[in-house]
From TrEMBL:
Gene source species: Glutamicibacter uratoxydans
Domain of life: Bacteria
Gene: trpC
NCBIfam families according to UniProt: PRK00278.1-1, PRK00278.2-4
Classification via HAMAP family: IGPS_B
A UniProt-annotated Pfam family: IGPS
Keyword RNA-binding listed: no
GO biological process assignments: L-tryptophan biosynthetic process
Keywords: Amino-acid biosynthesis, Aromatic amino acid biosynthesis, Decarboxylase, Lyase, Tryptophan biosynthesis
PANTHER family noted in UniProt: INDOLE-3-GLYCEROL-PHOSPHATE SYNTHASE, TRYPTOPHAN BIOSYNTHESIS PROTEIN
Name under which the protein is recorded: Indole-3-glycerol phosphate synthase
Keyword Lyase: yes
Length: 274
């Protein structure tokens, strides 16, 4: 069993427990009653006319306590405080891991962050059931994560449609040329390239530069994982990233606010000018 399969098995088990507590119909009602979702595509600089885009590098800052590859990263007793720091540093979106077993996250973290910031919030989980998409909306998320490697074409397209019907956006995560083609065919507008190999969990930032040219001009392109310094941020920006998704480097830094601001400045300076 791959790491991804293993994580998803745990996610399904935890989901079963929540569903027994709150049936889908109830969560649907809560999702429809929630305050409208914020437009993350726009917040990340997306524009239907690519010529209208600016050249600011956006940062998606992640609340991440631990990971399968690195183990414990940071305690984060108050996710709301960290998220407010990210926002003050200029982050465009906050990503909140809600997977419990491997990443130490929860829907409580999502609630706390949602209440603390005005910018869009991404519910970062392994989405394998429509229940999780309604649940994300019910908890005020504006974006969900859809990992192409975990979904067949039909499921990916239907989850994307449901996400859009609920007024949200999806960050559609890819790792390979083939997954990028599938993301585009499904209608993804925010496409992430995760440079972490799902089988070995190794990070290879060079993957981004190889895959970025395959992405459409009207999509928002997100480089995910492996940002340790402004040098890497500049590399991703120069290679075509519109945004970067950063976890570890921010949660471990004593000054997350200043680090977000530094990453934005370094990335924006390196982005190709029009
Ligand atoms: O901590 P890093 O190396 O900055 O990585 C952040 C992010 O890319 C990573 O957390 C991530 C990318 N895709 C995921 C899917 C599930 C869980 C986590 C992830």
């Amino acid at each position: 069993m791959s790491v991804l399969d293993d994580i998803i098995a745990g996610v399904r088990e935890d989901l079963g427990a929540r569903r027994a507590h709150a049936p889908l119909e109830q969560v649907k009602e809560q999702a429809l009653a929630a305050a409208p979702a914020r437009d993350a595509y726009q917040a990340l600089g997306g524009h239907a006319d690519p010529a209208q885009r600016d050249t600011t590098l956006r940062v998606i800052s992640e609340v991440k306590r631990k990971s399968p590859s690195k183990g414990a990263l940071a305690d984060i007793p108050e996710p709301a405080v960290l998220a407010a720091e990210y926002q003050a540093g200029g982050a465009s979106v906050i990503s909140v891991l809600t997977e419990a077993r491997r990443f130490g996250g929860s829907l409580d973290d999502l609630d706390a962050v949602r209440a603390a910031v005005q910018i869009p919030v991404l519910r970062k989980d392994f989405t394998v059931d429509e229940y999780q998409i309604y649940e994300a909306r019910a908890h005020g998320a504006d974006l969900v994560l859809l990992i192409v490697a975990a979904l067949d074409d039909q499921t990916l397209a239907s989850f994307l449609e449901l996400t859009h019907d609920l007024g949200m956006n999806a960050l559609v995560e890819t790792h390979t040329e083939e997954e990028i083609a599938r993301a585009i065919a499904a209608g993804a507008k925010i496409i992430g390239v995760n440079v972490r190999n799902l089988k070995t969990l190794d990070v290879d930032p060079a993957t981004f530069g190889k895959l970025a040219p395959l992405l459409p001009a009207d999509a928002v392109i997100v480089a995910e994982s492996g940002v340790e310094s402004t040098v890497q941020v500049a590399d991703y920006a120069a290679a075509g990233a519109d945004a970067i998704l950063v976890g570890e480097a921010l949660v471990k830094h004593a000054d997350p606010r200043g680090t977000v601001a530094e990453f934005i400045a370094a990335g924006t300076a390196a982005k190709p000018q029009r």
